[in-house]
Amino acid sequence: MGFPTHRMRRLRRHPTLRRMVSETRLAVDDLILPLFVCPGEGVKTEISSMPGNHHLSVDRVVDEAREVADLGIPAVILFGLPETKDPEGSEGWSMDAPVQRAVAAIKQALPDLMVLTDVCMCEYTSHGHCGVLDGHELLNDPTLELLTRAAVSHARAGADMVAPSDMMDGRVAAIRAGLDAEGFDQVAIMAYAAKYSSAFYGPFREAADSAPAFGDRKAYQMDPANADEALREIALDIDEGADIVMVKPALPYLDILRAAHDSFDVPLAAYNVSGEFAMVHAAAQRGWIDGEAVMMELLLSIRRAGAKMILTYFARDAARVLARH
After folding, report:
1. Of 31, 174, 289, 325, which residue is most buried, by most CB within 10 angstroms?
2. Could you report the per-residue pLDDT of 302-312, keeping only the tens digit for each?
3. d(Cα 282, Cα 53) in Å, to the nearest integer?
4. In Å, what is the CA distance from 97 to each residue of 51, 90, 109, 285?
5. Environment class of residue 324 by beta-carbon count within 10 Å: exposed (0-12), middle (13-18) or buried (19+)?
6. Active-site amino acid positions
7. What pTM, to 2 d.p., does this model score?
8. Where are the alpha helices (DSSP H) in the chain?
9. Closest by CA position to 154, among listed 131, 201, 120
């Protein structure tokens, strides 16, 4: 039976009724805020392409984390800018580096805030690629040792979860074995399982000073044309011991999120990346869109596609909106 017996607008006519029949809910507990930690003291410098986001010294990142916790956001993920860079990225596993010091400081000040760390070498290497090079070729297996050193150093500093983003084959298994061997068997792994070689990362590369000195990352990050391959990548990371798997970026890959949600019974994360964030801000500044409404709609779309956790630079603003409703 169709119209007039069935009138789909009946359930849309009142705001309360719309909330009651809503199929998808976005909550502050779904949000993870990325933070960029840099050397120095008293540093809080806005990132020009990412309004409202800053390079933060360790003392200032604690203040930022306190604001995050006060908003009810349950977790942050830390990215680091080192004092110096070298071909191996050795500051990536130094206990005196900004990320390791920030982890320890945040956990001391705010023990209930979940602290995740990005594990990759691109921010630390002088060439800007994600591991060990032989000429212009990135070597997979030698890179695994460096990633494991970095992950263990983060765990030693107090990280609750490590998040390898390098897209080396076998890195989840290597990191899991390294953590377990050092007694960090309770530290979880969130794998950037389906990370695409995307044009949406531009502002992040300014924020993390991680642009490659030559070439690109298409030989190790995924081809945007491929969907089935993403499910193979995710399955492999789960088999290797990933506790949570991630799709990155989020918005151009909502189909991948949905397919992963339907295929795997593990928590699923998505990264609402810097380019997605910057486009919304740029359009809102010009008055072309309602920035707040678009922000909430896009986060809801990521949640609807199947992501339970959303890494997003909108986390603070979204938390404030959610608190009003």
Report:
1. 31
2. 999 999 999 99
3. 14
4. 26, 10, 19, 36
5. exposed
6. 195, 248
7. 0.95
8. 15-20, 58-70, 98-109, 140-157, 171-181, 202-207, 228-240, 254-263, 274-285, 291-305, 315-324
9. 120
